[in-house]
Amino acid sequence: MNVFKQVISYMCDHPTAANLLMLLFLALGAISVTDLKRETFPDFSVNAVEILVTYPGATADDVETSICRRIEDAIDSVSNIVEVKSTAMENRASVMVEMVEGNDIIEFFNDIKTQVEAINDFPNEVEDVIVKRINRIDPVVSVAITGPMSPLHLKLYCEDLKDRLKHLNRVSQVEILGFSDHEFLIEIPFYNMMRLGLSVSDIEGAVAAQNIDLPAGSLETRDSDILIRFSEERKTLYDLENLIVASSQTGVEIRLGDIASVTDRFMDDEDKILFDGKRAGLLQINKTKSEDALRIMDAVTRFLEEEEARAPAGISFTTTQNVSKIVRDRLQMLLKNAVAGLILVFIAMLLFFPFGFSFWVVMGLPVSFFLTFFFMKHLGLSINMLSMVGLLIGLGLLMDDAIVIAENIAVHLEKGKNTFSATVDGVSEVAAGVFSSFLTTLFIFGALALSMAGDIGKVLYVIPVILILTLSVSLVEAFFILPNHLSHSLSKHENKSKENQKNRFRQKMEAGINWVREKLLGPVVDTAVNFRYLFVGLIVFAFMASISMIAGGYLKIRAFPDIEGDVLQARILFPQGTPLERTEHYVDQMVDAAQKMNGRLSLSQPAGADLVDHISVLYNTNADAGETGSHVATISLDLLNAENRSGTMDDIISQWRSLAGDIPDAIAIAFKEPTIGPGGLPIEIRLTGNSLSELKLASTQLINWFYSYEGVFDLYDDLRPGKPEIQVKLKKGAKIRGFDARTVSKQLRAAFYGTTASEIIVGDESYEVNLRMTGDDRNSISHLENFYLMSGTGERVPLSTVASITHSRGYAGIKRVNAGRTVTVTGDVDTRVANAADIIKDTKNRFLPKLKKQFPGITIGLEGQAKEMKASMGGMVKAFGIGIFGVFCLLSFQFRSYQEPLVIMAIIPFALIGVIWGHIFMGLDICMPSILGFVSLAGIVVNDSILLVSFIKLNTARGKSVEEAGKMASRERFRAVLLTSVTTIAGLMPLLSEKSMQAQILIPLACSIVFGLLMSTILVLLVVPCLYTILADFNLVRLTDDNSH
Q1: Is residue 433 pLDDT above 80, yes or no?
Q2: CA-CA distance, 10 to 8, in Å (whole number)?
Q3: Which of 578, 731, 843, 924 is the most exposed place for a label (fewest CB within 10 A)?
Q4: Please, how many CA atoms are within 13 Å of residue 887, restricted to the half-sphere of its CB?
Q5: pLDDT above 70 coverage of the chain, percent
Q6: Considering the chain, what is the average pLDDT of its residues?
């Protein structure tokens, strides 16, 4: 301690050292803060590898058998796999392989890629096998482009915009939506093929043979080498139509255009977007996890301003689904609260200390924050909602050390010491306690940062990390910078009398504090210590009564509070095979309902603003279903800003749903907001087994069970019927006539699915040249039965003579997890009516055991919010246990006792009284931010207890009895305890009283800390002396040790 005292003396006495250190902190922060990226949430993506396989024309069952199972078998030997999720769909397969956290993702990716590339028994028709890392891509904004041009030209214009956007420094991820790939489609009437004795395969061969661009070697002349290239590539409709495919018996050349239609078109008619009723191209601008959303948005805004000035007449650009606005609004809201909190903290300081004294104590905040920005940059942390909340909490916490030091310096000044001696002695006297308090907080937050689990944990862990950084920096500032500033600030007033140093208001304030301490606190502490067993018993009773509010269900528990955004979607799912025309009809019905809803609800909006700004229709898209095709669509509404509009999102959904009316045949119509951040669905239960029929039956019973709860809606499972299927099988004797399975399947596939003759490059885009029969010939069962097959000898035979035709229906998609088939039941819950956690708990206790008994071959697992809550809660409980054990060890070492630390730590559970009743008072549910706030509170409340116990021991060492020592310590520490609590609460009060929608996710955290701290402030001053005295009653304290303080 002598060495430490010498360092403090040096820093106080040196005229520039403290200021230079402060300037260094500020400079490091200033050069770092501009490089910090800004986003809504920190990175919570998993380390995973995705395998994508294209198998054209295959059913989901074919894909499962031929693709998914083979990939699962191939990668089974790869180590560090957490989970393998496979999805078999029509034409394609997707396999996601998640890695155990903490391993090398590059090595993991290479191992997976090696095993997949070694598979040599995929079907010949498999086209693409792609192995890629799953990287986090977040949406920033979308730009809808509309204008008087054809879809083909609109796509070309969008591609030009995309290329120029990607040349901007800030923009790297741009995707064009609303168009499928280009193709040259050759459709041949069946009659023409029969007339000329040609098959689709014959015509394909003719097209491919005359559409070649190939290097043919080189000439090595005396002067130079000359490359030879054969170039006979057909790149226009005219070239293709004039391609010779056959000749008649009279020798007349037959050109492709004579027997077939050739069109330049998009492959999928359903792949389109309507924006406010017009055909549109959508530029979706995204960001990687290392990019800044707001810088990207600024660059896009400038680009659009320039583009509008040069664009052709009639072209319009409209930003939609602007996620960057959410980022900007939330960060501005938190910044506003931070400034307000800082002002309140400074005002609170002025109530107790002179202006200069208060100024230098508060000045420690920006100094600490700036150096924290430096460490954030080098640790890869971003400015987001959670890191800003960490800084907000730090507004009050960072000052605890400075306040304890400043208050003790003030005490020594009141004893008549000069400013230099008062500063050095004041800092030295509480240094051990301050450092011990810092270590206890470090144990709690450190354990929390290391033990958070699940996607929610990956997001919330940022708060303890930020607090560890800021508290560490603030400790350095409080010990080595603050004393110098306080010493010089006070020295200016050293010759003035005590009365002249204080203004009249502060004199009254100090007199009021002294009156509260002596007339209110003193008698209450005396009574509590005198009747300590009764008082502690009453506190325990209050604790049990508070816990019963949760156990009895009065105070609900949920994953996250609802946050209303500015986009609402209706996601429509029809049975597979539904024609596009039918989907369009019901989409129009939904759009009309949205427009009527806008007309009704806009009347109640501020200044007569429209509730709905824009309506987008995205065909071929449904994020919930995970399917593409003519049977899915998403209607997206851009709404008036949540901060400005009247009415809730539930009211809007209710109106829209009611006006839309009945949609026949729809499997599901889900009204919801696009998700941003972690959490999962309120209801999500996975059933795993081998039999799809059993899984479907079990999922149906589970859905019916959930419908018995009020407030549950949008229930469905992910095992849905596929398209109607016609199965063709060879009859006996087909082989004798020259037909085997390969011959028949190849001709059927070419005629009805189509075949690719060649691929050409036009500009920057790749075109496939595809062939098939005309739609009239393909879309009739009679045409299929009478389809003529060509044998190897040239004989033409109707399909029905060599093959049987049967009708069936498979599944649209088959999901697999860890090599087992799965069906997942999902649903939503109206939080105004029901609580998802209660529903899941009741289902788990009352229904799932019965379901398991009825289907013993099925495994049942909770997913979604329930799984995330369990993982995150388990991580927090683990962190709390580790942190508390670390605090106990530290205090036991400091106080040389196993019993005395229990006095300090007893305050932690009692603080839960304030947390619970604070949530009830504020009308909030307990959620993950609430629990994080309480665990964080544990690192705060012990600090005052440590110093109070230290002063009790100091008083006993001076000859006081334990009872008297406790009563005196409570009075002596009253101002410091009150001030540390007031500043922390003042820092969070703006956030706690925030009405913004964007703050709803953070208010429960602030509620836990503010109300928990209010309760613990009282308990520290009253309960700690009682508990310490009770230990002394049983001779469990060390009364002769005068070094523990």
Answers
A1: no
A2: 5
A3: 731
A4: 33
A5: 96
A6: 86
